Structure to design on (660 residues):
């Protein structure tokens, strides 16, 4: 007898039973909508045989895991369509990604936009055929021979890397077969037609630039047409807000092949970048941080001692100096921060010690993954490392959580989600230390009263972390800030403090970044505001433009007065029509345009025009100056709120630490 426990009841079967039968006995509607089953936490095909007692959940189209399943099948249907239309194409790898899927193909002829239309049409034909999708178990060597005979050398290479004794899972739909662990839908018809192919891009085989270049076809797939339409609308909005396009309009930065993944900042972009640093520097000073700076290049031995060489070495840039020593460009700031902490003996009375650093770090990212400011190889982190006792973890984590949320509010991000990420497979330290670290971080976030979700296995290699995910103006999520509890690194690098007992103890190290990468946060801000940054952030806050040359002298006087009040102002005295000047500065996203001419000079007024508005407001020069100065003096102290306030004395300490 097989006992099946479902969320809404139980089923008893007198023999092993397939998932489809369990779904059928759950009700006609469930059977019709069923896509897969989850047994004891594992997603499986409906045709899989359940041979023992267990918990089973029927996965329907509305289930949280349905999209992953649909997108997985969409990738296989894409590959089948390409093979039918272009038999010379070799299939390689085709996973799901956020909001969609892709498949990489090896083909001498480039795919064109017209090809994408043909491929998508063929995909719809395959869905209409409702081809059964069946799982077959093959011996490894049989699979190699099969794919080699088909001319699929990339697929054969993947299989050759699997142990010879392993039985492989191959899925068949129509005449198309693909190596895959599954699970899959029971037929292509269950995929539906809520999918669309988006673009073709280049990608190296296995992500290695030394390997052949492949062609990657991207697509998106959803439960129904309404979801697809909403996503396509979001993509249209995202294209309008692309920070790379905005940068050209606003003259902020550029990239070039001589320095892949590194930013060439222009004066206006660097002004914006420094405005973010100045803001964060003020915030951190008021919250009790001291600021340091550590070397960009350090000897290999330090990275070996910290564990980075073993666990993160593939992402590091290294160099061999003339004296034959091996150095690495730092991928993280934390080992350098520990070296500063170790200078001089620390007592428990010195803790917590909050040490901040705007550190430039370098990480090797595959060239195909680089994407403007969002994915670079050289970037600046607003890092901080808080050295404290285990008893201080909860309090310090509460302070950091509130500081992060207050800062995001200042930048217009009210919708922020928190994810708790626990131990990854690739890590340093004992399980006992990880258990203590995870328990301490979980207790800390619970003490804040903030809600969070769990992100299993996504912690840093040295400790568990909280990830702060903010949602932008068009509904996209961006993971920015992090908070990590580390009981490993201080001990590995010999950091200690003298406790009340007079003995040496290893401090806890809290790794904390608020913006995360300043480059990436800049890109997020540009896209969130579509380039129309708040006045306090805008690199050029106002332009004084003349109608005729009669106003040149007065325009310079107006600009000088505004600059004396700390505003970032430029003049436009060109011999161009005022309509042309307005359009040009609007394209450059200048928040305020002050138009002056002969009459304004005589009356001591300005005609003030805001970006995105067609009306002008006439003000005296004094009124305009006071108004813009007040607006530009952005307060960096948002109100501190505490979902779980605790004792009033505790709240007062938190308020002092967060707000200064």
């Amino acid at each position: 007898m097989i006992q099946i426990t479902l969320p809404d009841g139980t089923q008893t079967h007198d023999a092993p039973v397939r998932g489809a039968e369990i779904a059928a006995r759950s009700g006609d509607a469930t059977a019709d909508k069923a896509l897969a089953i989850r047994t004891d936490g594992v997603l499986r095909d409906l045709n899989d045989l359940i041979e023992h007692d267990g918990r089973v959940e029927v996965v329907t189209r509305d289930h949280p895991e349905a999209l992953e399943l649909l997108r997985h099948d969409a990738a296989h249907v894409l590959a089948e369509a390409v093979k039918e239309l272009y038999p010379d194409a070799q299939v390689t790898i085709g996973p799901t990604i956020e909001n969609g899927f892709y498949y990489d193909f090896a083909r001498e002829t480039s795919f064109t936009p017209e090809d994408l239309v043909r491929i998508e049409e063929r995909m719809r034909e395959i869905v209409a055929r409702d081809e059964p999708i069946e799982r077959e178990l093959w011996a490894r060597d049989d699979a190699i021979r099969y794919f080699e005979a088909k001319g699929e050398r990339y697929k054969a290479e993947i299989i050759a890397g699997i142990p010879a004794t392993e039985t492989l899972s191959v899925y068949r739909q129509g005449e198309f077969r693909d190596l895959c662990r599954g699970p899959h839908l029971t037929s292509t018809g269950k995929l539906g037609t809520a999918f669309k192919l988006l673009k073709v891009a280049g990608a190296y085989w296995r992500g290695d630039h030394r390997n052949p270049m492949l062609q990657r076809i991207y697509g998106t797939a959803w439960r129904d047409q309404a979801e697809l339409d909403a996503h396509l609308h979001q993509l249209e909005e995202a294209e309008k807000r692309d920070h790379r396009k905005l940068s050209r309009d606003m003259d902020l930065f550029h990239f070039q092949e001589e320095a892949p993944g590194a930013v060439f900042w222009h004066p206006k972009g660097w002004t914006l970048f420094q405005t973010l640093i100045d803001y964060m520097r003020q915030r951190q000073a008021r919250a009790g941080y001291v600021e340091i700076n550590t070397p960009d290049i350090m000897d290999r031995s330090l990275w070996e001692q910290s564990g980075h060489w073993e666990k993160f070495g593939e992402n590091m840039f290294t160099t061999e100096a003339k004296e034959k020593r091996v150095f690495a460009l730092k991928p993280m700031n934390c080992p350098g921060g520990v070296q500063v902490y170790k200078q001089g003996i620390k007592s428990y009375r010195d803790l917590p010690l909050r040490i901040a650093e705007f550190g430039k770090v370098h990480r090797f990212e595959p060239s195909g993954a680089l994407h403007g400011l969002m994915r670079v190889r050289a970037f600046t982190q607003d890092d901080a490392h808080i050295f404290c006792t285990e008893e201080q973890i909860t309090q310090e984590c509460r302070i950091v959580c509130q500081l992060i949320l207050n800062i995001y509010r200042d930048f217009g991000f009210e919708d922020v989600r928190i994810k708790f990420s626990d131990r990854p497979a690739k890590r340093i330290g004992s399980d006992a230390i990880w258990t203590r670290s995870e328990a301490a971080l979980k207790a800390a976030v619970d003490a804040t009263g903030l809600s969070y979700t769990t992100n299993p296995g996504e912690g840093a290699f040295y400790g568990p972390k909280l990830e702060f995910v903010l949602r932008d103006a068009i509904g996209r999520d961006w993971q920015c800030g992090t908070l990590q509890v580390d009981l490993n690194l201080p001990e590995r690098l010999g950091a200690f403090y003298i406790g009340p007992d007079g003995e040496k103890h290893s401090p806890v190290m809290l790794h904390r970044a608020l913006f995360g990468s300043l480059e990436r946060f800049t890109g997020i801000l540009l896209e969130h505001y579509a380039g129309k940054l708040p006045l306090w952030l805008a690199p050029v806050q106002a332009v004084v433009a003349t109608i005729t040359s009669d106003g040149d002298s007065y325009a310079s006087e107006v600009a000088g007065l505004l600059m004396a009040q700390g505003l970032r102002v430029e003049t436009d005295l060109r011999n161009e029509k005022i309509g042309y000047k307005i359009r040009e500065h609007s394209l450059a996203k200048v928040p305020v345009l002050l138009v002056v001419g002969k009459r304004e000079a005589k009356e001591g007024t300005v005609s003030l025009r805001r970006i995105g508005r067609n009306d002008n407001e006439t003000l005296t020069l004094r009124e305009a100056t006071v108004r813009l100065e007040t607006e530009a003096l952005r307060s960096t102290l948002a109100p501190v709120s505490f979902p779980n306030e605790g004792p009033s004395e505790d709240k007062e300490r938190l308020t002092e630490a967060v707000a200064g």
